[in-house]
Amino acid sequence: MVKIVTRKSLGEQNVYDIGVKRDHNFAIKNGLIASNCFNKSHSTAYGYVTYQTAYLKANYPLEYMAALLTANSGDTDKVQKYIATCMSMNIQIEPPDINRSGVDFTPAAGKILFGFSAVRNVGQNAIASILEARNEGGEFKSLGDFCDRVDLRAVNRRTLESLISCGAFDKIQSNRHQLTQDLPLVYDWAQSRAKDRASGQGSIFDLLGGFSSNNKTANNAFEIAPKAQAVDDFPPQKKLQMEKELLGFYVSDHPLKSLKQSSLVLAPINLSQLGEQREDTLLCAVVMLNNVKKVITKKGDPMAILQIEDLTTQSEAVVFPKTYERISSLLVVDARLIIWGKVDRRDEQTQFIVEDAEVVDTVKLVMVELSPLQADNIEERDRLRTILKEQSGDKDKAKIPVIGIVQAGNSRQLVRFGRQFWVQDSLSAVIALQNARFPAHIKPLTGS
């Protein structure tokens, strides 16, 4: 195989399809074959497939996106990208459901339901046993009912822990912590019943309650399944962490979703747009910190390689020694951070070079109230700019955004000041603005 290095027009020539005898369509001298070439029929086929997929996405969006997620379920980055696409199309992704999920991602009631095959620690034999028991006996009514009806040789305790932790039992019992406490007791109880059935014996409750040897199910026997002492549910953040561990990404919610509107005042980029950014531009992103790898340079200085993600994708970020010395205390796994920096494309890899960072929950906004007359008056606007520039000082240290509020009757308009007008200290800026007769106050970013 060789690449074409020069070419010239030979005018109109016959075009042959793939499969001609002896010589390939693109045979050149001495029996060599030109690579990176496509004939017209090949291009037409690609165009036709593009048309088909565009038609399916436009007319059958649920089915199309479900198929796309299923086909790429082994690639976490692609699945996260397609989930972000679903969000932009107003398609909701639901967590696995023990009574509704199938093997793959499936459309259900205007949403896409997570499939069992994409849950870690849930194998094909376990899935087959769950679906068979559900088809034969209908919906599962409790954890006890589930354990009593499935084949526990295929659905082991680790599989059950994974299904509980990712939310598959939430529609039956939303308290995941309670289910994890109940599981050891219920599992042992169900195993004991399975052994009795295998030996042809039934408990006194089976005999009185109508044990049926035909469907291997005792009516309402699950009601006598043991339960642990009542406990409070896991905190929301803990539940999301378990989802991320078992599904590869957040499904029922995302720690950054609540910040989507409030963080707009920072004008951040999405990580999926990182490759499109100029290398000399200061960028801002709101991210979750998934992993921190500390590295020691040849000079003995510590630095870090970060794995970060937002609502669109995951990426890698680098913190060099000088920056690491200043922000290392903030680099904690699962922290929600606002990071500033630039893109680097060294070694054919796009990375975010972190120059500064702040924990989202600590970021404050300076809110300045303006009347319509002040907003329209050039002298008032210049006076406001002068104050903000004085409070900005060193641009690299000014990390507090300033938002203007123009109130006219029932109309309220927010005006975002540019990065050059951000300030270093929120309290000092508010005092300076108030002294200049501009009503101002401090507001947390997460509460905007």
Q: Percent helix among the residues? A: 25-40%
Strand element count: 14
Structural class: alpha+beta
Reading the helices and strands in chain order gives: HHHEEEHHHHHEEHEEEHEEEHHEEHE
Mean pLDDT over the residues = 84
Number of domains: 4
User: Major sheet: size, sense and barrel closure?
Assistant: 5 strands, mixed, barrel
Give short descriptive properties of this protein.
14 strands, 4-stranded mixed β-sheet, globular, 4 domains, 448 residues, 13 helices, OB fold (Dihydrolipoamide Acetyltransferase, E2P), alpha+beta, 34% helix
Explain how this protein is built:
There is one protein chain. This protein folds into 4 domains: 1-59, no CATH class; 60-247, no CATH class; 263-361, OB fold (Dihydrolipoamide Acetyltransferase, E2P) (Beta Barrel); 363-447, no CATH class. The strands form 4 sheets. A 5-stranded mixed barrel has the order 6-7-8-10-9. α1 (40-59) crosses α2 and α6 (157-165) runs antiparallel to α7. It contains 13 helices and 14 strands. The radius of gyration is 30 Å and the shape is globular. The protein has helices at 40-59, 61-71, 76-88, 124-137, 143-149, 157-165, 176-198, 204-209, 236-247, 321-327, 372-376, 378-392, 426-435; strands spanning 93-94, 106-108, 111-113, 211-212, 217-218, 283-296, 302-309, 314-319, 336-344, 351-359, 364-370, 402-408, 411-416, 440-444. The chain is an alpha+beta fold. The protein is 34% helix and 19% strand.
